[in-house]
Amino acid sequence: MTNDDRWLDDNGEPIDEDHRGLVYDVQTLINRRRALGIFGGVALTSLLAACGVQAEGSTDASATPSATVSATPSPTASATAEASGPLQEVPDETGGPYPGDGSNGVNVLDDSGIVRSDIRSSFGSSSTVAEGVPLTVALTVRDAATGAALAGRGVYLWHCDRDGNYSLYSRGVENENYLRGVQATDANGTVTFTTIYPACYSGRWPHIHFEVYEDVDSAVAAGPIVKTSQIALPAETDQAVYATTGYEQSVQNLSRVSLQSDNVFGDDGGIHQIASMSGSAAEGYTAALTIGV
Question: N or C: which end of the chain has fewer CB atoms below 10 A?
Answer without folding.
Answer: N
